[in-house]
């Protein structure tokens, strides 16, 4: 289990999951691929343009991708991962569970390490669970790391 996929949402709990995955990778002599999936506004027309950071008009999807890639680099810097650990990153647009399962089905990964939000009861029924969908559909072993409850 050397090729490890770690989906993140740039939150503090996902930073902790990334550190946990990095320790697994370090001990196994593995490598990490950090994945962020965002859902573009489904009702926004594909030709919708907005001003980018440079002041030029760009497609909304391109601006969101650029922002996601910038956020990924900042997120990775803030995670303080072990020196020398091979880490790559990817950003994708789409429905999170489908994108993550597609990555796993590619055969590029041996293990998935992901966080859970610990929603239960009515919240779970209303919101669904990305982690549950992935655990049920994964082609590789999955380690889920629960979020630490805030006091």
Q: Secondary-structure blueprint of this entry?
A:
Layout lengths: L2 E5 L4 H17 L2 E8 L10 E3 L5 E3 H19 L8 E7 L2 H10 L5 E6 L4 H7 L2 H8 L4 E5 L5
Parallel strand pairs: 1-2, 1-6, 2-5, 6-7
Antiparallel strand pairs: 3-4
Keywords:
151 residues, alpha/beta, Rossmann fold, five-stranded parallel beta sheet, two-stranded antiparallel ribbon, 40% helix, globular
Short description:
By secondary structure, the protein is an alpha/beta fold. The chain contains five helices and seven strands.
3D architecture notes:
It is built from five helices and seven strands. Helix 3 packs parallel to helix 5. The protein has a single domain, classed as HUPs (Rossmann fold, 3-Layer(aba) Sandwich). The longest helix has 19 residues. It has a five-stranded parallel sheet, sandwiched between helices. Strands 3-4 form a two-stranded antiparallel ribbon. The termini are far apart. 40% of the residues lie in helices and 25% in strands. By secondary structure, it is of the alpha/beta class.
Q: Report the major sheet.
A: 5 strands, parallel
Mean of the pLDDT scores?
87
CATH homology group: HUPs
Cα separation of the termini = 35 Å
Q: Using DSSP, what is the number of strands?
A: 7
CATH architecture: 3-Layer(aba) Sandwich
Overall shape: globular
Question: What is the string of helix and strand elements?
Answer: EHEEEHEHEHHE
What do we call the CATH topology?
Answer: Rossmann fold
Radius of gyration: 16 Å
Number of individual domains: 1
What share of the residues does DSSP label as strand, in percent? 15-25%
Unreliable segments (pLDDT under 50, ≥5 consecutive)?
122-128
Side-by-side strand order of the widest sheet: 5-2-1-6-7
CATH C-level category = Alpha Beta
| Helix content estimate | 40-55%
Structural class: alpha/beta
